[in-house]
Amino acid sequence: MTMVHEEGSVTVSSARAPWRIGTRGSLLALTQAGTVRDALVAAGHPAELVVIKTAGDLSSDPVQQIGVGVFTSALRDELAAGAIDIAVHSYKDLPTAQDPRFTIAAIPPREDPRDALVARDGLVLGELPAGAKVGTSAPRRAAQLRALGLGLDVVPLRGNLDTRLRKVSEGELDAVVVARAGLARIERLDAVTEALEPVQMLSAPAQGALAVECRSDDATLIEILSGLDDSATRASVLAERALLAELEAGCTAPIGALAEVVESLDDEGQILDELSLRACAAAVDGSDVLRASVVGAPAEAVELGRALARELLDMGARDLLAADSGDGPRTQAVSSPATDLPNPSPMENSQ
After folding, report:
1. Around Cβ 310, how many Cβ atoms within 10 Å?
2. CA distance 204 to 154
3. Taking a C-beta distance cutoff of 8 angstroms, is the pair 48, 34 a contact?
4. Catalytic: which of 57, 77, 93, 112?
5. CA distance 107 to 88
6. Less Cβ crowding at N or C end of the chain, within 10 Å?
7. What is the mean pLDDT of residues 32-48?
8. Catalytic annotation on 217?
9. What average pLDDT does this structure show over 101-127?
10. H-helix or E-strand spanning residue 318
11. Distance of CA 16 to the CA centre of its chain
């Protein structure tokens, strides 16, 4: 583990030392953590970045081989040891298992969670010819691309965003699929040739969201960070992550989920917020995709996610995720009402 301090410009409002924010050293990670630092500084709380190298940064192996949580464990080790006060994670990288040592004190407003296509010659997905080489690091993306039946050659891909984009510009690949949020944060949306809609590809649970984590016993910092929290993003992410946990699947599983808080009308014509959650489970070879959706109250986010996961399990998701292949593409759809749920869990705060 290596740590490097990066000073932020701060307006000191007290005599205490700056809050130390741990982050990975990639451009994307630094940019994400920088938004948290800047928000704290703007609120009068001095803060600085501390760069920590993780096992994921030191390995070129696929994420599913080097393990869930590989990008987050080093930050958590330093947080537990007191070397940093705050850790900023891409929320989708966190293991679903809770760790009582830590609290997700803030989930800031989410970037657009859709996946994005970056293709040669400005092509969109439907214009890529059969046999075109499309790179992706995620089994979820690979499974859904194959399920579209376009005859694409989906190939594994690692490296930071610049490396992935360069493989297209230099002609090694015809296209790559990456998270649109990452490109937005490093101001490279100009490279996107198509933002993939959820009907084409459901994003990873918590994609586009940040987890701002601190020690569970640091009440002062928890209160400070709570000012960065966005309630709609939190409800959406909790629903998606609860689904992932109920399916007993990690962040590299071929599972897509997207929750959104939307306005609706009750029977009396009054506007109310509802949480809409869509999810899919896919065979890696694209031979089978199961889809389901549910709508309910944002306060029931965790139970909505669990209920939808059970719906997918009833449809055969466990066998599907374990299977290597199938007989042919099949898509199922079901809508599950938010009924017969146990009492909602309290706010998830230790993942």
Report:
1. 16
2. 18
3. no
4. 93
5. 10
6. N
7. 97
8. no
9. 98
10. helix 317-322
11. 33
